[in-house]
Write a structure and sequence with these properties.
Layout (H helix, E strand, L loop, with lengths): L2 E5 L2 E6 L8 E4 L16 H4 L7 E3 H6 L10 E3 L2 H19 L4 E2 L14 H11 L5 E3 L5 H10 L3 H5 L5 H7 L2 E5 L19 H10 L3 E5 L13 E3 L6 H13 L7 H6 E2 L1 H8 L10 H8 L3 H12 L3 E5 L10 H14 L8 E4 L29 E3 L3 H6 L4 E4 L2 E4 L5 E5 L3 H4 L3 H8 L4 E6 L4 H4 L3 E4 L8 E4 L5 E5 L12 H11 L3 H5 L4 H17 L8 H7 L1 E3 L11 H5 L13 E2 L3 H5 L28 E4 L15 H4 L8 E4 L1 H6 L7 E5 L4 E8 L7 E4 L7 E2 L2 E2 L26 E6 L15 E2 L6
Parallel strand pairs: 5-32, 6-17, 7-14, 8-9, 8-12, 9-10, 11-23, 12-13, 17-18, 18-19, 24-28, 25-27
Antiparallel strand pairs: 1-2, 2-3, 4-5, 4-19, 15-16, 20-21, 21-22, 24-31, 25-28, 26-27, 26-31, 29-30
Helix pairs in contact: 3-19, 4-19, 7-8, 9-12, 9-13, 9-14, 12-13
The chain binds ligand MGD (2 copies) and molybdenum atom.
The site of molybdenum atom has 2 residues, from loops.
Length: 764
């Protein structure tokens, strides 16, 4: 019997059951392009940072202080005592302030298993108690998730219905991608990557003779063996480029309105803007050259090419993690509609072919197992990236998707399965907000930066220490994740932690429904299997699945073309927009009357960019992209992640011209800074990054020292502001900085040392 473990970064086989020895992980044999990220999950370097026992920050334990978060030592307690204290605090906050003083948004990627999904467990727990303040949307797609249902279809639907790679290889002759298709990002899929397909997909496309063009500030974004063409553009200016391409298409002899007339609404209002009738500015290639830095002739040639090929226009998600992030997505869909190939094989648009492994999958789309969360009795919510605003400004108003809402007054934060000291922008500002609630409870596996910022820390098991089911949309596998090792120390499953809290709070029967883990796994599997049976596909029963370990659905693969039904019959297969068509002009969005997101795609200046006055002081645009050797901050202590560091810090990629001008050589320790913060990084000089741009991946564990983050966490530099009044999405990619060589004595990294832990006896 083979044991398997599913993780966001891939499926692994757990090799050998030698008594006592730590099992070895090997990639799934069926995976043509395995991902090394997850192989070190049981490595000593990772295990030594596990949290062994419940602990409470000393000042909180002794006097309920708020000061000292992130600085004081922790005191270890027996589980029963820690749970009693946590339950009493939840009770106090509910009684004195109400459930809407509890923030359970708890954003983050936690683990891939469908039952032990920490947020789902947390949400169900608080729902049984009457509810909690939730968060909506994602850091990944803050602007996209709000915009897309108004103009085409939801992001979930879009992500699961991209034209498959086999169809692209057979039909597409021009693949134009803003932000490229960085293979590093396709290493993972939310809820578990199966077979890694994108390297092969890109290669087949290229071998079939398609031209592949990468547009953006980073040149090596088309895979390892695939040079492609690179058009370097200034960060955050893609909308201007897209508008100029639309201008060229509009004036081309091959431009044909038929698709626009039959499948879209509002083109003429947009056209008046494009030609300058409404604002006096024609969005010509010359106009765009001044903004993007791309020669007008290059834009014009590309614009004409779009109509002379079977063209797929794609855009990375990063483009919408920026000021006015709605605009590049909207402009891309609009341009694709003008080219007229949406719904044709190999043509149209893609939103994120390079964002995750799932994009372009031909595996069947099936309803997987879900752990039911129940109903939330609290209506207050925030868009997830407004967390610091909420903590700092209770009672203040914010706009979101056409409504006006008020930030709640949070007294208790309970986080499980996410790392805000990884994911949030402007971490120095987050620390100010984080100091305000009375109490912070964190459930974590490792002494991560967020674990160290807790008052009450409850240690959770990792996937390999518990039974679960792995399943991800269009990844083609059900995985029986059988426990492979015993839990570390006294770590407990998140479900067990919440069940124990629920017992103390009188809601255990509602929370567990009398089922244990095996009972739940059976139930959520059977529910999923019943839904799938209704589509004509019969899964084995639970016992056979559990015994076999894997269900491989790839025999049911089928080529897929996004929007094919809609193209064929827009009346019979309307889109879920108000008009049923693609909305180039959205009456609904126009009705929200937002200056920063009007009714059709527009160019709006980013809050910070290379064309901004601020660039005189901070002349480098910082891109903080997804890390190649990790999933966000997970497994940063692993040998694989650490092998990518330079001078012990996260690498920052600089153009040799920018580096030389600052006296920075390859391998130097550098300081990156702006008004918001300062961090160290290790320099890598590269011609694949355009002058004026710096690239520092996310995920180095936050290691704050006095006025200097020691490890290379870009979020001490990034801007914490909403993308627009529509979405309030995060704007991580809108950030100016300056760099200089670091000359002092390099401070020691401390974040990979476990924190100071005191025995119980020193406290009352
Ligand atoms: N500057 C900048 N910032 C960004 C981005 C960017 O592009 N630039 N990207 C953003 C994006 S797209 C995202 S999605 C976010 C990601 O942000 P997060 O999802 O918050 O990042 P992770 O490091 O994956 O954090 C997951 C945490 O959950 C813990 N965990 C894993 N499994 C379990 C479990 O079973 N139980 C419990 N209790 N805990 C568990 C892990 O130890 C880890 O600390 O970051 C965002 N931040
Ligand atoms: N290995 C690994 N893979 C991951 C993740 C991870 O942590 N590790 N995280 C996953 C998650 S949660 C998400 S949401 C996806 C995110 O997927 P993306 O948003 O696509 O990922 P990024 O790496 O942030 O950005 C992709 C590329 O966009 C380019 N770019 C940045 N700004 C601009 C711009 O203004 N214009 C243009 N044209 N290009 C720009 C950069 O060159 C960058 O390499 O990745 C997923 N994949
Ligand atoms: Mo993400």
């Amino acid at each position: 019997m083979t044991r398997y473990s599913a993780a966001h970064w891939g499926v692994y086989e757990v090799a050998a059951d030698l008594a006592g020895a730590v099992p070895r992980l090997i990639p799934l044999r069926a995976d043509p392009d395995p991902n090394p990220i997850g192989l070190d999950q049981l490595d000593d370097s990772v295990t030594r940072l596990r949290i062994a026992r419940p602990a409470i920050r000393k000042g909180w334990l002794e006097g309920r202080t708020r000061e000292g978060r992130g600085e004081e030592p922790f005191v270890e307690l027996p589980w029963d005592e820690a749970l009693d204290i946590a339950a009493a605090e939840i009770t106090r906050v509910r009684r004195d302030h109400g459930n809407d003083a509890i923030f359970g948004g708890s954003y983050g990627w936690s683990s891939a298993g469908r039952f032990h999904h920490a947020q789902s467990q947390l949400h169900r727990f608080y729902n049984m108690l009457g509810g909690y303040v939730r968060s909506v949307d994602s850091y990944s797609l803050g602007a996209g998730r709000v915009l897309m249902p108004h103009i085409a279809t939801s992001m979930d639907d879009s992500n699961a219905s991209h034209t498959s790679w086999d169809v692209l290889a057979a039909h597409c002759t021009l693949f134009v991608s803003f932000g490229g298709v960085p293979l590093k990002n396709t290493r993972v899929s939310s809820s578990g990557a199966g077979r890694h397909r994108v390297r092969g997909g890109l290669r087949k496309l290229r071998e079939a003779g398609a031209r592949i063009i990468n547009i953006g500030p980073v040149g090596d974004n088309l895979g390892d063996d695939d040079a492609g063409e690179w058009i370097a553009t200034r960060p955050n200016t893609d909308t201007a480029m897209l508008l100029a391409l639309a201008f060229v298409v509009l004036h081309d002899t091959l431009f044909d309105r038929r698709f626009l007339d039959s499948h879209t609404v509002g083109f003429d209002i947009f056209r008046a803007y494009l030609t300058g009738e409404t604002d006096g500015i024609a969005k010509t290639p010359g106009w765009a050259q001044a903004i993007t830095g791309v020669p007008a002739a290059r834009i014009a040639t590309l614009g004409h090419d779009l109509l002379r090929h079977r063209t797929m226009l794609n855009c990375a998600w990063s483009l919408q993690r920026a000021a006015h992030g709605e605009q590049p997505f909207w402009a891309l869909v609009t341009l694709a509609a003008m080219v007229g190939q949406i719904g044709l094989p190999g043509g149209g648009y893609g939103l994120g072919y390079g964002a995750m492994n799932v994009m372009g999958s031909a595996h069947p789309r099936l309803p997987g197992p879900v752990f039911p969360q129940g109903r939330n009795g609290v209506s207050a919510f925030i868009p997830c990236a407004r967390v610091t605003d909420m903590l700092l400004h209770p009672g203040e108003r914010f706009t979101y998707n056409g409504g006006v809402h008020v930030y709640p007054d949070i007294r208790l934060v309970h986080w499980a399965g996410g790392n805000p000291f990884h994911h949030h922008q402007d971490l120095n500002r987050l620390r100010q907000g984080w100091a305000r609630p009375d109490t912070i409870i964190v459930q974590e596996q490792h002494w991560t930066p967020v674990a160290r910022q807790a008052d009450i820390i409850l240690p959770a098991t990792i996937s390999l220490e518990r039974d679960d089911i792995g399943f991800a949309t269009r990844e083609g596998l059900f995985v029986a994740m059988r426990q492979a090792v015993v839990p570390h120390g006294e770590a407990r499953d998140d479900h067990a932690i919440f069940a124990a809290l629920a017992r103390r709070l009188g809601v255990e029967p509602a929370f567990t429904e009398g089922l244990d883990t095996q009972g739940w796994l059976r139930r959520i599997y059977d529910e999923s299997a019943a839904k799938i049976a209704a589509t004509g596909l019969n899964l084995p029963d639970f016992d056979h699945f559990w015994e076999d370990g894997l269900i491989d659905l790839s025999a049911h693969d089928a080529p897929h073309i996004m929007h094919a039904d809609f193209r064929r019959d827009p009346v019979g297969h309307p889109l879920p927009t108000p008009s049923g068509k693609i909305e180039i002009f959205s009456k609904r969005i126009a009705g929200f009357a937002l200056a920063d997101c009007p009714g059709h795609p527009v160019w709006l200046e980013p809050y910070e960019w290379l064309g901004h006055d601020k660039a005189a002081t901070y002349p480098l645009h910082l891109l903080s992209d997804q890390p190649e050797r990790r999933l966000h901050s997970q497994l940063d202590a692993s040998p694989y992640s650490r092998a990518g560091k330079v001078a012990g810090r996260e690498p920052v990629y600089l153009n040799p011209a920018d580096a030389t001008a600052r006296g920075i050589a390859d391998g130097d320790l550098v300081e990156l800074f702006n008004d918001r913060g300062r961090c160290l990084a290790g320099a890598i000089l590269s011609d694949a990054i355009m002058p004026g741009v710096a690239r520092l991946a996310t995920g180095a564990w936050f290691d704050p020292g006095p006025n200097l983050e020691r490890h290379g966490n870009p979020n001490v530099l990034t801007l914490d502001r909403g993308a627009s009044g529509l979405s309030q999405g995060c704007v991580a990619q809108t950030c100016l900085i300056e760099a200089r060589r670091f000359t002092g004595e390099p401070p020691r990294l401390t974040i990979f040392d476990p924190p100071q832990i005191l025995p119980r006896s020193v406290s009352p």
